[in-house]
Amino acid sequence: MGRIGCIASVAIALAAAGGPAGALADLALLDVLANDLAYDPVRDDLVVAASVASPQHAASLLWVDPQTGAVEEEIPLGEDPGALAVSDGASRLFVSFRSVNEVWRFDLATREKDLVIDLGVGPSPFFNTLHAVDIAPVPGAPDSVAVSLTEGWKGTFHSVAVYDGAVRRPTTTSSSDWSQVLEFGADPAVLYGLFNGTAQTNFFTMAVDPSGVTVASAVNSGGLGQGMHESEGLLYGVNGDVYDPVQGVVVGSFGDLAAYSRVPFSDVAPGMGADPVVFALEDGLFRAFDRATRLPTGKYRAAVELRSVARRVVRCGPDVLACAYEGYGGAYPGRVGILRQSAFVDPETPDDPWVQVDGGGGLLLSWYDASPSETGFEI
């Protein structure tokens, strides 16, 4: 399953618009290194899991107004959060942790923690505390969640399990059938898992029932890349592939996304219905595609070079996208960008160059063009 600026102590920079807080016209940047993002569609809240290494609001949950970029509330956690997941109906928020073997549940109406799930330990003699690498709430069951477990944070593969409240259902998968990424569709009895390592078998369809979870099939998907998101019965891979889990085949692709990016593209927001499928690349670059034809419909590129990799993108209502960036090149640890999809332009619109002064006082010039035949350069 998976991804900044300030009111009070956080600074908001409207990079392209240059406007005040409360007037989100383009890209708002928050100086927060986020381990994950989640959206509460009932209350129109963006929830940010701020890393323990974040320069602002470290080891906390942030509630952000996606319409303005304003931080509404900070809840210190005291631990390094991992994945976030909102339950069906948006009554619960589940939070996993990189630093402790627990999953916390929050009531989204009150923003208060109401349950701690102790994940326990595994059989290894060392570093055996179980950590949740990914979490997926069970559709129609707001207090139940599927969890991908490792011994230690991203350590030895352990299992996929389902919890009702704090109680683990007895049947779990084996360590050989482990998935790093979990996704439910509309059916609470079917869970999809993706292992993004080098194994030939990388896609799992799991059956979920009151006894727990078992593997129904394990295949090589032939696609999807390092992650996936479900929408209307299809799985959208971060590499541009579209996978039909029932037929077990790649049914289409959004083309060679790598041609638009210097580093591997990182996440996709598939949306639903008439929504375009949006891919977040690096440096504040987004590309949108028609869901049916899979042809480009728009693009966005930040007015300033962010020098960062997109790790997570989520939709916040019909027009707003939020993206968690991890910095590279020593510029900064990370940021969260919030922008309106209406700021996208025609995909063939040429880009103006970025101009920056680097840390040594020299000129840094780089650009991206709409055509994948063009390349960026630095001097």
What would you say this structure looks like, in words?
This protein is mainly β and 379 residues long. 0% of the residues lie in helices and 46% in strands. The protein contains no helices and 31 strands. The protein has strands at 12-14, 27-30, 34-40, 45-50, 60-65, 70-76, 81-86, 92-97, 102-107, 112-118, 130-137, 144-151, 156-164, 167-168, 181-184, 190-194, 203-209, 212-219, 228-231, 234-237, 241-244, 249-253, 267-269, 277-280, 285-289, 296-301, 308-316, 320-327, 334-340, 354-357, 363-366. The strands form eight sheets. The chain has a five-stranded antiparallel beta sheet with strand order 1-2-29-28-27, with no helix packed on it. The chain has a four-stranded antiparallel beta sheet with strand order 3-4-5-6, with no helix packed on it. It has a four-stranded antiparallel beta sheet with strand order 7-8-9-10, with no helix packed on it. The radius of gyration is 20 Å and the shape is globular. The chain starts with 11 loop residues before the first strand and ends in a 13-residue tail after the last strand.
Quick structural gist:
By secondary structure, this protein is mainly beta.
- The helicity comes to under 10%
Average pLDDT figure: 82
Strand order of the largest sheet: 1-2-29-28-27
Largest sheet: 5 strands, antiparallel
Structural class: mainly beta
* DSSP strand tally: 31
By oligomeric state, this entry counts as: single chain
Note the overall shape.
Answer: globular
Low-confidence regions: 1-23, 355-379
Spatial extent as radius of gyration: 20 Å
Q: What is the end-to-end distance?
A: 38 Å
Strand content: over 45%
Count of individual helical segments: 0
